[in-house]
Amino acid sequence: MANVSPIDRASCAQLLQPYQGQFDQCFRDAWNRWQEWLKKLDGSPADVSPRARANVLYDFIKAEAVKQFLGAEHVRVREERGFLVIQIHDRLAIRFKKFKGRKLKTSSIPTGQALAFQGQTLEFASEVEPMTHLVAGYLLDRFELDLHKLAITCTLDGEHLWAPIEIIPNAGEGGITIPMPASPTDGPRPVIRSTRKTPAEEKKH
Hints:
Elements: H1 9-16, H2 20-39, H3 50-69, E1 75-80, E2 83-88, E3 92-98, H4 112-118, E4 132-140, E5 147-153, E6 155-156, E7 159-160, E8 165-166, E9 176-177, H5 199-203
Parallel strand pairs: 3-4
Antiparallel strand pairs: 1-2, 2-3, 4-5, 5-8, 6-7, 8-9
Helix pairs in contact: 2-3
């Protein structure tokens, strides 16, 4: 497997634009299903661990993705060893994940398949050209009571290659860029000085 040079953000946004609403629906329908499912459980919702919630929610997202994308034009839905991939125009291969933190990073069990996907090297035997690998993910709010952000990211070995594209219906050809929080190593913040003159300065004129 050879490393792939992922296509640029603008090209990805253009290919993804017709499917923004479907990605949005996958997450929201899955979340609504999770909420209804939780109401039917005996006991407190707090009895369900974050890991259990993430696993069940992922299964719901996969089920909704199959409903949304199976038979869609220029889209192929494939699953191998529980690894669901949405292929668009045979140029993008998209997985579903939960984001961790505001920087929209993900974590995975380091299987060979997961590492190949993260390293932009995963190829299917039937494909002529390798595809750019993306993650369609969700981030919960600080209390983990609702969806906070839905976005599509492109990473190489865990680092973002370009700014995430927010998933919203009818976002437009360019999508919406999610500002990434600054790292403490990004240098000092600029000093902003007021242009208003102090009383002492005004007396000089």
